[in-house]
Amino acid sequence: xxxxxxxxxxxxxxxxxxxxxxxxxxxxxxxxxxxxxxxxxxxxxxxxxxxxxxxxxxxxxxxxxxxxxxxxxxxxxxxxxxxxxxxxxxxxxxxxxxxxxxxxxxxxxxxxxxxxxxxxxxxxxxxxxxxxxxxxxxxxxxxxxxxxxxxxxxxxxxxxxxxxxx
Length: 166
Fold this sequence. Notes:
The protein is mainly α and 166 residues long. It is built from eight helices and no strands. The longest helix has 20 residues, at 140-159.
């Protein structure tokens, strides 16, 4: 197989775009760039789109969540249309991911579950006092999402370490 063919197959099975923005946001927000790439992969496969629920852009951010992020970050000039810009979408998504990692003491399972299902649901699930693992996530969709992101993070670390600055 040729290197060009190998690259094309890799790009189809595990796409990567905007790695410069991902590296910048990872450094700025003290996040694993492979985790940011994995969230983008799980949310949109690096295709800018709007979901039926209204989530927008590469990291599929709802306008209400974006306003929340703008309030948290002190952003004053936010417009929902800005989420279609990859740089802004990745910056907002990374900010929210960092916020969740801080809230949930660097626990990627809790943070990713909250990214998908919301903080309220995760806080509710944790209120039982039991250890929170992927298999303990009661929503099948959220459990599958967390597994997908964690698997993709491993794959991005293995296949794109130089592109992501790892």
